[in-house]
Every structure is written in structure tokens, then in C-alpha cells.
# Entry
Amino acid sequence: MVKENPTRDKLLTYMAVAALLIFLWYAESHFSQYSLRIINNIGIFIVLAVSYNLINGIAGQFSLGTNAFLAVGAYTSAIFTLSPEEKIRSFIIEPMIWPLSEISLSFPLSLLLAGVVTALIALLVALPVFRVRGDYLAIVTLGFGEVVQVVANNVVSVTNGPLGIKGLAPHTNIWWSWGICIFTVYCVVRLINSSYGRAMKAVREDETAAEAMGINAFRIKTLAFTCSAFFQGVAGGLLAHLITTISPSLFTFMLTFNLLIIIVIGGLGSTTGAVLSAILITWGSEALRIVEEPFTFFGYDYSGIPGMRMVLFSIILILVMLFARRGIMGRNEFKWSVLLNRFGRQSKSEARTS
Amino acid sequence: MDIGFATQQIIYGLTVGCLYGLLAIGYTMVYGVLRLINFAHGDLLMVSAYVAFFGIVIFSFPWPLAFAGAALITGFIGILIDRGAYKPIRKSPRISALITAIGVSFLLENLALVIIGGRPKPFPIPMLFEGSLSVGQVKLPILSIWVLAVTTVLLMIVLAIINKTRIGMAMRALSRDMETVSLMGIDVNRVISFTFALGSMLAAFGGVMWCMKYPAIEPFMGVIPGLKAFVAAVLGGIGNVTGAAIGGLILGLAEVLIVAVQPDWSGYRDAIAFCIMIFILLTRPTGIMGQKLPD
# Structure
């Protein structure tokens, strides 16, 4: 029986990260543009899924505001990386308001700013909501998604209205998306394993009991929500510089729904599950595109049905919630000792018989 | 602002407000009984609109039959949603029920998109609901009179059912304590189904009148009204039927009057409900008519 061994586990983790980096380095020079795009998407979706799981799975508060936070992050970083000349060229309805029109920052700084601005806005949303029961969070964040779209469409001198912001430099490559992905997973795992993380789980299980044990539930919930929003804002910045064109209609509720499916299938409350499922679903939804395109099935001509993927996804979500609520991982996390035991079982049973 | 213009805007506000109110009553009843935000409630508005549309256009039923059919079928779908999606997880953590509710809502929207298509369809308004009366400078649309009358009658009926009948008593008891009620020999699931049916039928009436006011029906038409109706329910005090109707009226009036006073803000119309929600949560989370929130 292999036991947990911090030194060995740390070493194995470093080796796994190194292997991942070698794979990315290989992929960058050998894979097609399309595959690289999917690899980028997977990195960004892991950031989103892990941070979304923090509020929904670990702290147990049902938030539906990811699309809004993505939008805030994407717009913030886009506004700060665009050069002043480009701003004059694309803001044709109304020129951009003064201080913003002159500022132009580097990409990493704009990502940081995207995270900070998103976290601040999340804090403003959380303060009224967590004063009462967490139930309202779902509907307030859902409404917030609509408000962000309304604001993005109407505050033309900041967001360029319905035209959106075009011509962003394609800063995001697999190093940025996966670098931030690894950083996010590291931060979130450290947070979950800290006393704050344990307090979040306590609030999830029983808020009243947690408060009786001296946990300030309001503070813990706000912390989880704000942290989650920070990483979602950064992911928004990454996404903006991956697709290079953003407009208000891009950040629909569909994004949040996809993430919800990811964390439910991965197992609510499991970071490992969120990562695995983000890879699976991001890749899988690309593969599932065929149901929306015409193809021939055993000589039967099947014309594609647009929207069929979302029907399938919602049915999968309901079925998983009804019949397999634990998802892939339940609430378990990946441990090297478990993996090693699984591989070592064969030799161990041989040793016992001899 | 002269008095004629003000009266005109108030009539519009009351009309929209009644529609929000009808939806909000369904939200508030389900929340009162199950402590569940039924996200699919707004989509029932879309379902009833399509049923009425197909009843009139495809099967060329007379409109009263099509509207009644819309109410019955929507009520039935409400029961179906409860039995299929919510009943199996009644005992599990609240977040599972919320996720399932979002799933159901998304399923309804996208199913409509796949089956019927995303192109908005014009709703055929029956003759009886068209035109308007002129009282001085004020134009009084016939539809507004219908909406106000129908809402008042439906609110009376719902209040009578809740306060005067045995099943209403069971509903009130359920909202206090589900376990004790089931120990008293009451079929809890039947009462919940009844609640869903009643709420869904109100949403159906709201839906049919909604698409006579805004006669373009499409699969996602229920999302925004659903969100706003929930705000109305919170505003009135969640769990309280009269409060929901009052909340709806206040929300409708606020939206119409704010835009009437400040036409520049018309782009922000959909954000008003959100601001009201935040304000309510900060100042009086129990709403206008609400009592202390039970846990």
C-alpha cells in the first residue's frame, strides 16, 4: 500500500507539469491552427471551470454570473490594450472618453486589471445579496448578466456599443492560456486546502452550524464569490485576446450554462473533476458539432438541426442531476497515492500470494 | 408633464405590471411551498404563447378555445416538469434543485428553437382585443382593459383557492413545514402538483396576453419577463400572492414611468428591475408584504 508522501507527491506534480509544458511546446510547432485553438480554449475553460466550481461547488452558493464576469474582464482588458490610434479608428459612433482613450497598457498588466475590476464589481454584487439567503444569488447574477449586456450596448463612449471592440492584438497563445490555467489551479487548490477553504465547505454543508462554530458566513461567501470572479475576469481578458473581436452579444447565458454542465459532470465540489470535465466537454462539444451539420447516416440523409447540441446538453444536465449527482469525481480530489496504488495493485496481490 | 400624458403612461405601466404580476404569483407560490426558484416558470409564458399561436393559426380554432387549450396544456406541462425534474430530488441539497431548474428552462427554450425555429412569429390578435377607446386625450387600449380585468379576476380566484379551500389550506401548511404536513396524512405531492398547475396556468394567461401586447413570439421571449417577475415576487415579499401582484404593478409602473420621464434612459429599461432588486435586498429583504424569511 503506497501512502501519501509530500516530498514524492510534490516531485511527481512538478514532473507532470514539466510533461505538460513539453507537450505544449511540441503542440505549438506541430499541431494545426485548429487544434491549437481548441487547446487554447481548453486552457481558458479550465480557468473558468475551476473558479466557477469554487463558488458553486466548494462554497455551495449558486451563481449564474460567469458570462457577466467574462464580459467585464474581456472589455476591461480590451480597453486597456488597444492603442490610442486604434481607439480613434474603431470608436466611430462616439469617441472614447478622455482618460481611457490615451491609456495603453501591456497585456499582462491589462489581464491583472481585468481580474481586479471584475472582483470589485463582484464584491458590489455580493454585498447586498449575501446579506440575505444565498438563494437570491442565482437570480441576481442572472439579472446581472442582462445588465452587463445592456450597459455594454449603451455606454458607447466606453464600450463602442453594439459594434464591439475590434482589432485586438492576438496576445493569447497557449503559453498564456495554460500558464494562467496552471496558476489558477494552484491558487484555487491552495485556497481550498486553507482554513478559508474549510470554512467554505462548512458553510456549504450547514450555514447555521458553521456560524455557530464562529465562521463569519457572510465574509466567507463574499470571499469565495470575489475570488471566483477575479479568475473569471482574467479568463475574460484571455478570451478577448484570443478571438480579437468582442461585442455585447458574445457573452450570452450560453457560456454560463456550458460551465455549469462542466462542473456538474466533473462532480460539484471537485477541482480535479472540473479540470477533467473542462477538457472533456470543450473537446466534446467541438466533436458534437456534427449533430448540427448535415450528414448521411446508414444511407439516410440527415439534415443538421441548429440548436440540437444545446438540447442534448440540457438533457444531459438534468439526467446527471437526477441519476448521477456525483459526476465523474464526486467530491474526491486527485491524489498521487491513489493513482500509484491502482497501478501497484497488481504487483502487490502477487506479493501477497507468494 | 401634463396630466393626459401621465395618465396614459400610468395605464401602460399598469398593463405591463399586471402581466409581471401574473407571472410573479406562480413564482411566489412555488417558492413558498418548495423554497425553489423555478427558473422554467418564465419559459411557460413562451410555451403558452406557442400553443395559442398554433391553436389559432394551424388548427384554426376559435380564440377562446385556443386560449383555454393554452392554459390547460401549460398547466399540464407545469405538473410534468415538477414530476419529472423536481420530485426526484426533493430531499437533496438545494443547489441540485436549482441546477435542475436551470436545465429544464434551457431545455424548454432550445426544444422550442429546434422544433419551431428561431424566427419570431407574428401573433394573430383576435378582433375583440384590438383597438382603443379615447377618453379625452387619453387613449385607452381595449387590451389594457382586458389585462386589468383578467388579472383582477384571476387574483381573486387564486386568493379564494388559497384561503377558502381545503387544498389551499394544505398549500399554506406546506409552506410552513413540509414534514409535519406529510405526517398529518396529506398527500404532499398532490398538493405540490396542484401548486405547479395553478402557477403555470396563471403564467399561461400572462403569456397569451403578453404576446397580444408584444405580438412577436420566439423561443427566448420568456427569459426577461421571467427574471423581472421574480424581482416583482421578491419586491412584494416572496411567498405572498397579493404581494406578488402588487410587486408586479410597482415594477411595471416604475419601468414605464422612469423611461417616460427620462427618454434618454430607454436603453436601460431592462436594468431597472435589477436595480430595484439590489435596493430591496439592501433595505427590506422581506419585501413589502413579506414576513420574516423562514430557513
Summary: The longest helix of chain A spans residues 217-243.
